[in-house]
Design goal:
With 88 residues, the protein is mainly α. The chain is built from five helices and no strands. The chain has one domain. The radius of gyration is 17 Å and the shape is extended.
Amino acid sequence: MVGQAEAKAIRAKNKKAFKQYKAYQGQFYTAKIDKESFDRIMASQASNQERAAVANTVIVNESSLDQLHQEIDNLHLNLCALAAEKSQ
């Protein structure tokens, strides 16, 4: 499990990337599309069950924001550790 200080450092390190993502997200949401296009896009999306069936990892977001951050930080560290093992 990641300590609070480590989790805070991870979030600080990724702050720039998160800001860039939010800027991109803002551009996406301001795009104007008609209702038919929106409905077609939504209908083509996989259901949560379909996504979970093919996912390697699922984070269930049913708790506090702090708990969600902790789970994300733990997943990130675990994935980094797996990548490091694989590269050896």
